[in-house]
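Please fill in the sequence for the structure shown.

STRUCTURE ENCODING:
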């Protein structure tokens, strides 16, 4: 049985970025992905300056542009009092569907020599000598897989979290997220260069253009405050925020369920272990940032870059796993802890009517404060 240097579980932005970087360092890497690509997943689909920086580092920026991503130049925020905050972005940003982007990144990894097992689901991880053996389901050619090190990049939550006894797995939150791609034909006000955000008590929603004729509608809701199905929650937002309703043509909200809908509950924003049982966690597997920050994809890409650099240094310097784990935790906290705190604070403020309206009035009087607020969630 072949033994890979690195087995990466999950081929989203974090996993594929780590695979590309590690392969470039000369490691023998495999990517294990349980779903067929292209596939969609819940995401605001916003690519910030940080994400572009990583793509440049992987020499993929020009290839990314060949996908014809939609250029984002401004953000507009509508609160439930009808007040609007309009701000031009001072950095390059894009919108593109995750299905299209993830497929592009995975194909790039495969072309660089990364072995891809897909569709292939890891059912069990067992230590074996100085490495690991992964029991998988996905065909006779896929089982088992052996590796010296494992990186988990499988997203917000996976059955492996339970098998690995990660404590957060048993925490139950009331946060529910939803994403759907809507056609420009059901929108009254469609501006390809502008992200529009809407908020009301217990819910906020982003409308992000991902192509000339399609936008990503993605929201996060506290089910204690906005109960019901996804469409019912959107109707609550429609009633509580008049500006949101004005962006849709009459009766169009009832058509949302006709589109392919992606939804998930029990979204956990708290701390997770970055290393467990010698296994490294990156991307949303390490921790999830509040979606309104628009930094989830960049954090995923950056964490993939980071773990590859750290594991390469371990190989060069022959450091032990404990010191390597400490180095990873230090680097991760240095890069992400501040923006996570800022995004969490902003999310709490926006979902509460008192702090939301106070913040809106403050920014209306002092718009110069918006740039440092945005920068606080950036890397």
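FILLED IN BY: designer on duty
SEQUENCE:
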């Amino acid at each position: 049985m072949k033994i890979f240097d690195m087995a990466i579980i999950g081929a989203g932005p974090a996993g594929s970025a780590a695979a590309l970087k590690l392969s470039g360092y000369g490691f023998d890497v495999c990517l294990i992905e349980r779903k067929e690509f292209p596939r969609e997943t819940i995401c605001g689909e916003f690519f910030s300056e940080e994400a572009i920086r990583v793509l440049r580092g992987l020499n993929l920026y020009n290839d990314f542009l060949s996908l014809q991503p939609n250029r984002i130049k401004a953000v507009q925020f509508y609160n439930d009092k009808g007040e609007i905050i309009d701000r031009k972005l001072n950095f390059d940003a894009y919108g593109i569907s995750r299905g299209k982007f993830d497929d592009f990144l995975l194909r790039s990894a495969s072309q660089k020599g990364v072995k891809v097992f897909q569709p292939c689901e890891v059912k069990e991880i067992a230590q074996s000598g100085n490495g690991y053996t992964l029991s998988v389901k996905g065909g006779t050619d896929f089982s088992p897989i052996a590796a010296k090190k494992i990186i988990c990049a499988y997203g917000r939550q996976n059955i492996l979290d339970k098998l690995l006894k990660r404590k957060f797995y048993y925490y139950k939150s009331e946060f529910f997220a939803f994403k759907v791609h809507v056609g420009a034909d059901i929108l009254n006000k469609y501006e390809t260069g502008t992200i529009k955000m809407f908020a009301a008590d217990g819910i906020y929603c982003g409308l992000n253009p991902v192509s000339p004729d399609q936008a990503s509608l993605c929201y996060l809701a506290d089910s204690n405050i906005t109960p019901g199905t996804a469409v019912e929650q959107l109707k609550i937002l429609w009633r509580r925020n008049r500006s949101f309703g004005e962006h849709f043509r009459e009766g169009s909200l009832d058509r949302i369920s006709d589109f392919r809908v992606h939804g998930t509950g029990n979204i956990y924003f708290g701390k997770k272990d970055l290393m467990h049982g010698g296994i490294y966690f990156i991307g949303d597997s390490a921790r999830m940032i509040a979606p309104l920050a628009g930094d989830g994809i960049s954090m995923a890409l950056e964490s993939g870059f980071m773990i590859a650099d750290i594991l390469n240094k371990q190989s060069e310097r022959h450091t032990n796993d404990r010191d390597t784990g400490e180095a990873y935790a230090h680097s991760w906290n240095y890069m992400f802890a501040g923006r996570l705190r800022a995004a969490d604070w902003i999310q709490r403020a926006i979902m509460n009517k008192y702090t939301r309206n106070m913040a809106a009035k403050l920014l209306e009087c002092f718009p110069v404060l918006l740039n440092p607020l945005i920068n606080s969630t950036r890397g």
